[in-house]
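[job 0412] stage=fold_complex status=start
inputs:
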Amino acid sequence: MQTVSEIGERRLIAMFTEAATSTADDVVIGSGDDAAVFTATGPVVVSTDTAVSGRHFRFDWSSPEQIGARTVVQSAADIAAMGGRLTGVTVSLGCPPETPVDRLLEVNAGIVAQTHSYGARVLGGDLVSSPAMVITVTSMGVLDDVAPVTLAGARAGDVLAVSGPLGGAAGGLALLSAIDHGADPSLLDRHPSVVAGFRLPQPDPRQGPKAARVGATAMTDVSDGLVEELVTMSASSGVRLDVSSAAVPRATDLDEVGRDLGVDPVRWALAGGEDHVLLAAFSDAMPDGWTRIGTVSDGAGAYVDGEPVGSLRGWQSFSTT
Amino acid sequence: MQTVSEIGERRLIAMFTEAATSTADDVVIGSGDDAAVFTATGPVVVSTDTAVSGRHFRFDWSSPEQIGARTVVQSAADIAAMGGRLTGVTVSLGCPPETPVDRLLEVNAGIVAQTHSYGARVLGGDLVSSPAMVITVTSMGVLDDVAPVTLAGARAGDVLAVSGPLGGAAGGLALLSAIDHGADPSLLDRHPSVVAGFRLPQPDPRQGPKAARVGATAMTDVSDGLVEELVTMSASSGVRLDVSSAAVPRATDLDEVGRDLGVDPVRWALAGGEDHVLLAAFSDAMPDGWTRIGTVSDGAGAYVDGEPVGSLRGWQSFSTT
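[job 0412] stage=fold_complex status=done
writing structure:
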């Protein structure tokens, strides 16, 4: 089995470039030169997201393809959260020199496949040696005749809604962690959809532009947990946000996983992160498929079932655990 | 002294956002939301570059500001190499949780200052925990009424030229390494410009658009060493490239450092990397300040003083050393 250091940076980059080849009309120059060039005729939306081995993913918990694809899901969700449509990504991969080449190519295949599934392409990247695998995806997108939707526009009287179910990623992580600590491994087979929600969440990024078109006043993706996003949106918009916990849609099978692990699944839906569905405020109609979870009013702060969210906070993507 | 894990991701990102605040006309939404939005009215050039602690930089060799600034120099050079003008960057910082906050803020200050010195701005970023500090800068730029200059356009009869002196980064690295292995530390004081060439190379990115305007037929920045770039350009353009080693401009004081270390400084200029000046082929005039170093002819391969460059190759940014 060849390692990354044996095969060398330049040959690997050539292999990546081949995997990423795309003939999209708006790509003037694709990967393989100093920089890529694409045509833009309006506002460009850009965001970057990094995942680190042992911290954001584990190769014994997810396949290399899932790990690569998930980084694209996370980064692309930020484009959707502005109302944008993903058009291209750049990728930086850091890995130990002893990494098997096949593993790196599989991670890259996941990145390319997920990017293509979004109708976008890989525009270029970098490959470096690092003590742990580090994947940085920078996403770029366009706004198709909609104004960008920030965190700051929610107004009293608006309705709060989410574009999909929550808690799957946190529930799946809890399952994998429990098995790591001795729980019955057959739990994974009994709850495949929840485990899949951790390994490769499937938010629908098209909901971002759809929400923008019907006039969403504020929007974000749920990366740090619903309550954390509520706190941020509340502060940015200068309003009070109230959510009913019973109204928050929970991932399929999440309640059963909660029973099996002795955890309240509502907590995963409220405080768990990384589902990357969209949270938005609407003053008027909302798109099909969204679920109303609460209200916007004058005041300040984020509340769940009438109580301040304080006790539910604390999950952060940066921690030592 | 506070550490990164004590202060937390959100407060740090808020501090970064404050440091990066910019009111440039074409930035619709700056950092602080899910994604940044900037206006583009033509081709957008994008490239990404990653630097890893212990591999691409060392805190005992460079200041945190220099380390941050250098990552911007490296990434921005790829925009210049297409003929583009840098307009914005996104930054992903990974670091161990025990990293002192001051160090991280100084790295960020270097990133912001270098970006601003190029007339561009920091559009956003990410902050994660990782075993070593990892800095990824994704650069975006525009082409001001010039066509992008690829690696593939050099033609027989063109002249090869570079936009600045070479070897400074390799000579500075050799000095620092020698002192690490017992050489007299006063060598640093005797050769400040060469050490500075490693710590923070100062290529002029404005030379990229200038070269594009006068009709450069192929261009790249010297990141992996001149001979490596010659090999790449030769293969991409399908031509033979000949360089005269005596014509390659060497960094100020480089010959003296070579004498002090017993190394042929021409080797640093030919095979050393990370100076990030531009190498281009011109069919007609070249801009002021460029130095002619060789010729383009029919055939294949890269030659120095009439010999194939094979023996000079080997430096690669990905290695275990």
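[job 0412] summary: Residues 161 and 292 of chain B are 4 Å apart (CA to CA).
[job 0412] exit 0
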